[in-house]
Amino acid sequence: MMRKSILSLVLAVVLLVVFAVPSAAADADVDSLLDGLIDYELKNAGAEDVNGWISGKLAENAGNGSEWYIIALSRLGDYDLSPYAEALKREIAENGTSNAVERQRCAVALTLAGYKGEYIENTPAETMGRQGIMSVIFSLHLSNNGVGEDMAEAAAAKLLELQFADGGWALNGETADVDITAMALQALAPHKADAKIDEAIQKALQLLSERQLDNGGFMSYGKENSESAAQVLMALSALGIDFQSDERFIKNKNTALDAMLNFRLEDGSFEHEYGAGANKIAQYQAFCAVTAIKTGALYLADSAPDKEIVIQEAAKGDKVTEEPTEEAFPEYKLWICGGVVLLCAVWCTVLAVKKKKGIKNYLAAAIAGAVLIGITLFVDVKSADDFYAETKVEDPVGKVTVSITCHSIAGKYGNAPKDGIVLSAAEFDIGEGDTAYDLLIRAARSRGIHTEGSGSGELMYISGIANIYEFDHGDLSGWLYTVNGASPSVGCAAYQLSDGDSVEWIYTVDMGKNIPRK
Length: 518
Known about the structure:
By secondary structure, this protein is an alpha+beta fold. The chain has 17 helices and eleven strands. The strands form four sheets. The chain has a four-stranded mixed sheet with strand order 6-5-11-10, covered by helices on one side. Helix 5 packs antiparallel against helix 6 (118-127). The longest helix has 44 residues, at 2-45.
């Protein structure tokens, strides 16, 4: 009996070591990974600690990408997020937000940072559905945190309505996208007790399981990338699913985290695709994914907001303008100024010869000369050909085709071409790191086509092309872009192009449902 007892005790210890240690090791690995991500961000920001990062770089970029880090940090610890909140308040007051989803994202960040106020409370009612599925998802995130919670049922119902038969969701078209499906699951997760919503969740999980690659990763629009794995990790964490033990999400012993870490570079940064180099969006999504693994649902606050913030939004975001480049003083202006001085000298000489002694005659000559010189100095005269001349790409790395169409409103709008073609497919050189936004601006300028938008950096947003604007033809109208026939899940200024890509800008009246799919 004693031997059996000892044997049982040994077996119990062995089982405890075998099954408990990996879990502890997994937790330790997540903590280590999170520490590494924070260290990288602090070094990149030149900050000594997280609070220094918040009051420095994150506050400087408030409204232009800091929101994701603030959302994650709000879940990780008791940090002072007020410098960011005050900076975002100023940014919104001065420049506004460029679209419905951007306003929602800012409102979510403020809510999770512990702030409340009329601007935040009104956001769901004023933005839900204004920008397709993403504006429904983020409206539900707000409602899940008590902001406009009377709209939660409507937002959840709308998501179920937008779900495809295969269980997935997408920005547009009829082909489910991994990223958008995972984002929808994160918003629906708090409502999984509802039988109808749980049924939709299970269908979506089955789709994601089927889409998982043998290395544990996921593809979006035909390419494996780190962000897709990150979004799935966030979705599983929100639903309380252990990605390390649930067989549905383990392929050949590989998990989504294993796949995401394959995109981590030696310096601690993450890239979007293999060999593409560090990418800001891949970086913050990896940060959010690891945070979700550590804390659970990324978008759910632990407590209700208790700090009041008053925000007055600017009527409209800043228009896209190109920064003037510094260049040498144009030679033609020197010749003109010299000519004006010579003309004034001749004028005064003629007055002297004619013995015109009145000071007003000489003063008139001086004033006329000064006005002409002022016009020459401060007015930059360019021909249309010069202004719209195509900017040559130094050291091109490939060629990309771009076109601009508005078939959905052809013949129905004064500025819309009758054939719906603003720019026929044309080929342009691209440089290293060029984005869909860079290409659009280059192509538009080369053809004399107007463009307008707002935001900065990777959050640039195109609101108008060829004097055709978003919302001109309804709440769901605006410009979308596709690459090789599919709509990327990132903004045009964040999507880096590759040789041979085909980019099409399309004006849609229903957030892309009218866009033909290839």
